[in-house]
């Protein structure tokens, strides 16, 4: 599929942990489209996952950074600046809820965990952009993306405090998109992806059923991680220069549906 869509572009990709990770697929496709990339993840994920193999395969390196730490992010972007000069694209593919992990229900949240969830899953996006903005690290017409989920707009009963994290994440894309657009034509968007079988996805209670539901509801079926990566590549390419401050649904049509015949048939069979 490679068309050199990102030839000459340099990017930083956060959140590849193992080969199921959406960021993993983005890194592979960005590389095959001619980009030079740097990878980053939190140290524990580097130890537990297989990102070092990905880096080796793509001829790049992994810079450890906890995305909730401004010091770590400053250190990471200093490496990126030394390697690339300015940056053309950034992917924030990070999500983690301690309440979900500790099986705290939405009606019994631990608020210290909640702060950490927001910090890792959403505020980290602002922190990245603030550093890139203040240090003038983005090239003109660059592209910054984060991955979101439709629970930001609609209630998904088991998505817990990740729903508000995604709402905040999407709001940062709009607010920072304004400032970055005025400063140097950089676009900032979120892609709202179908349920996808990854470590983060599978952590949500009832995930397999949500995956099945999405499949039955979406006229095009759930979007896969590879398809999501292809969309990210398009958003990093010069073909999407005037798309900014948007939440872009990449979900096979799910977000516009009420009910589908497939779903009705499914209940008939019960
Ligand atoms: N899988 C789905 O169903 C789905 C659907 C819509 C959106 N998303 C979003 O896609 C993004 C990527 O998730 P994924 O599905 O590829 O799962 P994943 O588990 O492979 O990726 C999540 C990543 O977040 C990283 N991370 C966690 N805490 C971090 C921290 N403090 N600092 C830096 N990185 C940290 C993890 O190490 C991991 O690499 C997330 O934002 C997720 O919410 C996923």
Relative strand content:
15-25%
Second-tier CATH architecture: 3-Layer(aba) Sandwich
Estimated helix fraction: 40-55%
The strand order across the widest sheet is 3-2-1-4-5-6-7
Class by SSE composition: alpha/beta
What is the radius of gyration computed over CA atoms, rounded to a whole number of angstroms? 18 Å
List low-pLDDT spans. Answer: none
Total strand segments:
7
CATH topology description: Rossmann fold
Assign the CATH superfamily: NAD(P)-binding Rossmann-like Domain
Domain count: the total is 1
Describe it for me?
By secondary structure, the protein is an alpha/beta fold. It has one domain: Rossmann fold (3-Layer(aba) Sandwich), CATH 3.40.50.720. The protein is built from eleven helices and seven strands. It has helices spanning 22-32, 43-48, 51-58, 70-84, 98-101, 111-134, 162-184, 199-202, 207-217, 225-236, 261-269, and strands spanning 10-14, 36-41, 62-64, 87-92, 138-148, 187-193, 247-250. Strands 3-2-1-4-5-6-7 form a seven-stranded parallel sheet, sandwiched between helices. Helix 1 links the parallel strand 1 and strand 2. Helix 1 (22-32) packs across helix 10, helix 4 packs parallel to helix 6 (111-134) and helix 6 packs parallel to helix 7. It is globular and about 60 Å long. The relative contact order is 0.14. Residues 14-15, 17, 21-23, 41-42, 45, 66-68, 93-96, 120, 147-149, 193, 195-196, 198-201 line the site of nicotinamide-adenine-dinucleotide.
